[in-house]
Design goal:
The structure holds 2 protein chains of 2 kinds. Helices cover about 0% and strands about 50% of the residues of chain A. Chain A is an all-beta fold. Chain A is globular and about 45 Å long. By secondary structure, chain B is mainly beta. In chain B, about 0% of the residues lie in helices and about 55% in strands. In chain B, strands 2, 4, 5, 6, 9, 10 and 11 form a 7-stranded mixed sheet that branches. In chain B, strands 1-3-8-7 form a 4-stranded antiparallel sheet, with no helix packed on it. Classes of the chains: A mainly beta, B mainly beta.
Chain lengths: ~120, ~120
Amino acid sequence: AQKVTQAQTEISVVEKEDVTLDCVYETRDTTYYLFWYKQPPSGELVFLIRRNSFDEQNEISGRYSWNFQKSTSSFNFTITASQVVDSAVYFCALSEVSTGTASKLTFGTGTRLQVTL
Amino acid sequence: DARVTQTPRHKVTEMGQEVTMRCQPILGHNTVFWYRQTMMQGLELLAYFRNRAPLDDSGMPKDRFSAEMPDATLATLKIQPSEPRDSAVYFCASGFLQGAASYNEQFFGPGTRLTVL
């Protein structure tokens, strides 16, 4: 069965610090997708990134970067030079393909990031 | 700017009452998902539809919950009778998915915060 673990429940940093959010996943599937979503205080879930299991290249988008390592089943998310607007709950999610359920997302429990001045 | 819309945004009701939540997916999307978010269980997939047909509702308590998609622009989630343990935020998401082996991101609505007294 698929499972996503976000061991960090809450992280507090001071603005401009770098912060890494950890995500470890479990799956028996060889083809799967990994995602990160952001949930700001307004409550809406905002899509950040999708990565498929065959693409282990790290990705950078502005201050955001993602490190995917199949060897350790991890898909970590780093925010560089954090800002107060980054304060939110961040969810990592997994979707398996071979079971024919590529649509189904399994979410981790989320990491609450608090960025203060 | 296309968005998923959900109504109502907030609902307070008494135990035993019927609750209907509505979702308008993004025009052109062929897949609609219903999720429930609670502090204890996190984000759980309740059900999803593709091309208006229910594909999976295994996450939904069958005795009191029902999900339908009467047309391509409306999805509904109904609880009858409601119970205090149903108190949660219910999210609708939509996406355009082609087959089990391809995947695009899901776009989430703002959620309906349900409180059952």
